[in-house]
Amino acid sequence: MSNRSKTYQDQVEKIHPEDSYEPEEALETVKELASANFDESVELAVNLGVEPKHADQNIRGTVVLPNGTGQEMTVVVLAKGEKITEAEDAGADFVGGEDLVEDIEDGWLDFDIVIATPDMMDVAGRLGPILGPKGLMPNPKAGTVTFEIEDAVEEFKAGKLEYRVDKNGIIQLPIGKISFPTEDLLENFQEIMDILIRERPAAAKGKYIRSIHTSSTMGPSLKIDPGSVMSMLGR
């Protein structure tokens, strides 16, 4: 705690770090504690009882939140021919082919999503060691390898999110901004949790939802009671 700011320590004193909160109460508290001079993101972290090293338990997909994320997404499209024009018309921020691949290889990473047409994957494949560890490598399961460029760009610009379990079994993603009404954050939270519960792998053993935490960008983390989430979703 000594390395934390005075503001952060004051925030922690206003909560009960060891207690579990109902979802709505947790989100309201996160909003009340926010004190940064910018519109902080509200983050969700869910620890799942899975073994990500096994392919049948490596949970990954996309979700369009009912109320969006409040974030501006910078979209890169790797394409050729008429698909370049389609991507530009759809609102992609950067569009190109070999030139963009070379820029990324040289260290440029100022973007949030990379979409590629299938005929570009032989070139894009060179970016695996760079984009893979950051979760940015185009992948058909995430909807980022497709010839339907217009739809893909518009969906991601509108707030479509990719979720992916990390090596520790944790999925972490934003569910909105502090400025969102609590009910909007709650709807986004419910959407994500419903998807994760429905996607429980048959091979997963023991307790599936191990823990749920939420926080603002600069604030302390609050535990959410998994049992209350199951009840809320009618599970």
Polypeptide structure, described:
By secondary structure, the protein is α/β, with parallel strands linked by helices. The chain is built from 9 helices and 10 strands. The chain has a 5-stranded mixed β-sheet with strand order 1-10-9-2-8. The protein has a 3-stranded parallel β-sheet with strand order 5-4-6, sandwiched between helices. It is globular, with a radius of gyration of 19 Å. 31% of the residues are buried. The model has no long low-confidence stretch (mean pLDDT 91).
Short description:
This protein has 235 residues and is α/β, with parallel strands linked by helices. It contains 9 helices and 10 strands. The chain has a 5-stranded mixed beta sheet with strand order 1-10-9-2-8. A 3-stranded parallel beta sheet has the order 5-4-6, sandwiched between helices.
